[in-house]
User: What shape does this take?
Amino acid sequence: MNKKSGAPKRGAALIFLAACVLFSLLVLGGSKLSSLRAGAMQLYEGGEQSILADLAKHNENAYNIITVGKRLLGDGDAAVKGAEDAYKAMNGASGPAAKFAADAELDAAIATLVARLDESGMNQKDATLVNGQKADMYSRDMIISHSEYNARVAEYAQAVSGFPGSMIAALRGLSVPEYYR
Assistant: This one.
């Protein structure tokens, strides 16, 4: 036998080996990266235990406080207008980083409005409502601050920071999500 007849077999074997390596990297490795990313995003946007669900309740509380402010202080009051503008900005924000910044602005505007309402001499019923809504807002903020979302994003970012993770993520279109901060 001459040596040349074994070369095509070796070439085919090397091509098969390279295909197996690429398959395992792209399919199996990509599945793991997809799963890591999906886990993080579930904490942000999925279901009743997500950051977005807590922000929705947080915004309902803010809306209720603004409604009391409008009734007691009027639409033209600076604290009412500031809270309403911050509420609209919060509802218009998209993405974790923008939501975080808008949430901080809304919290500050609501604190100003509540202080203004306290100065105006609310009756007991309104004071109880406003203080309950404000307490629930702070509770939602505390729940969000303890979310594992940022840790999961960091875990995913670490997984795609080197080779082959960065290549797999790029080929599969798996970007690193924004942090909620």
